[in-house]
Amino acid sequence: MKMVFRWFGEKHDSIPIQYVSQIPNVSGVAATLMDKQAGDLWTADEIAALKNSITAAGLEMEVIESVNIHDDIKLGVPSREKYIENYKETIKNLGQAGVRVICYNFMPIFDWMRTDLWKKLDDGSETMSYDHTVMESIGEPNEMIRRFEAGSGGFSLPGWEPERLSMVKELFRKYDGITHDDLMDHLRYFLEQIMPVCEEYNVKMAIHPDDPPWDLFGLPRVLKDRDSMQEILTMVDNPYNGITLCTGSLGVSPDNDIPALIREFGARIPFAHVRNFKRTADKTFWETSHFTPDGSLDMYAIVKALHDCAPDCYIRPDHGRMIWGEKGRPGYGLYDRALGVAYINGLWESMDRQG
Ligand code: DNO
Asked: Which residues form the domain of 43?
């Protein structure tokens, strides 16, 4: 296992890279070029500059989160070909720079979704939450975007690029009539095209589950449960086609037994996002500390399954609360995620020693 920490780059993160290297056992970052739009080519020079800023702090850049997928690829329209070519070239450039895993998602239009980015908890900390009744009352995608922008604290939120979202009405029109099967088929096509490049440059693709794992605003989603996980892994049955096992995305659906999923699909899980949440009602939750008794997931069982069945994966702590007065990007402050690392380290070490 290698522990990594999501970092948005010098210009975009509230956390100096040097602080990341001070967290025990963190070997590298899950990095990105935040200014890139979905579909853009990442040049070797841009990648080298990013890598230099990371290695200067003694950290590795073996994981990228994310190289976003252009909507034309998800829509399966002819113009997808040029974006797939860019993606192939980007994989090649990243592979040559030592990147081993690319985390990406195939969610139409929106990435992850919450209805409150600053829910105040009893202990004074702040966290992100999702309440499906609020979601339904919002009803209108533009209102959702407005809320995300208002709550972002001035940071650009991953997956919520203003440039793309400004075209949201038009995007919705384009997705009209696209079914789950269509979306899955477009994912299959994309993966088939890029697999030879992934093999040649030794870069594993790791699709992120839909967050939350149900359809939103009538848009189809592809990765929400065991069966969709299996479908994705078998339709392109190649070790370079893998999953980012995100405990918090899949886990909020009580039917998804996270340790069981890891035990079944561990060989195809190159990357794990580990976080906890408290489910308070159907499709309603807030994000908690990583500690098992604080949330609804059994972190010991999850880490044990990773330890047993995906021992070589990269792990990162996922969303943390805002604690100790920190100001930062919702979900991505330093302190609570560093506590998450320390906790996972402790679990992992005890498992190593038990053999
Ligand atoms: C949210 C993240 C996602 C994730 C992407 C991967 O906090 O987990 O934005 O990085 O879905 O492409």
From this structure: 2-354
